[in-house]
Amino acid sequence: MAKPDAPFIPLSIAVLTVSDTRTLDSDTSGQLLSDSLNAAGHQLADRQLQPDDIYQIRATVSAWIARSDVQVVLITGGTGFTGRDSTPEAITPLLDKMVDGFGELFRHISWQEIGTSTLQSRALAGLANRTLIVCVPGSTNACRTAWTKILHEQLDSRTRPCNFVQHLDNTEQCGSRT
């Protein structure tokens, strides 16, 4: 529920697609997230595509969370159970706090769409250096579900009773990194 008298605070959001097979031109999931965040009034800080390699993923995300102009990192891909899926393993060591409810809520919502196959999603979220990091599956439908059913509201400073904006760095509600 949005509080109409609260100001909208646009966020600076980076998007990372983890894939061994896609290119930026064929990356419909990363494009959907980029288009959705722009349509919501946020700014795309950066967009990259990395192969499913723990250290390359971790290096990219580490650089973003060290930047003062990136408040949110959205990652699509690498959250399944294949041999190369390693996004959770890459990201978890970087997190200061887990947002345990994110993965639970994502799987609950996804169950309505894909049934028990949602068990194979290792979607997760957490905070690192006052930057929100969200990892969702690589399918375009999964990204759409995450954005429309969770992220759109939680990245809107007007959403009440709470949202993630208050926990992020460099917003009007937060101080700067020290």
UniProtKB/TrEMBL annotation:
UniProt keyword rRNA-binding, yes or no: no
Gene3D superfamilies, sorted: MoaB/Mog-like domain (3.40.980.10)
Keyword annotations: Molybdenum cofactor biosynthesis
Statement: the UniProt record of this protein carries the keyword Magnesium: no
Pathway(s) annotated for this protein in UniProt: Cofactor biosynthesis; molybdopterin biosynthesis
InterPro entries listed in its UniProt record: MoaB, MoaB/Mog-like_dom_sf, MoaB/Mog_dom, MoaB_proteobac, MoCF_biosynth_CS
Domain MoaB/Mog: 14-158
CDD domains: MogA_MoaB
Annotated signal sequence range: none
Protein role: May be involved in the biosynthesis of molybdopterin.
Name this polypeptide is given: Molybdenum cofactor biosynthesis protein B
Lineage: Bacteria, Pseudomonadati, Pseudomonadota, Gammaproteobacteria, Pseudomonadales
Gene for this chain: moaB
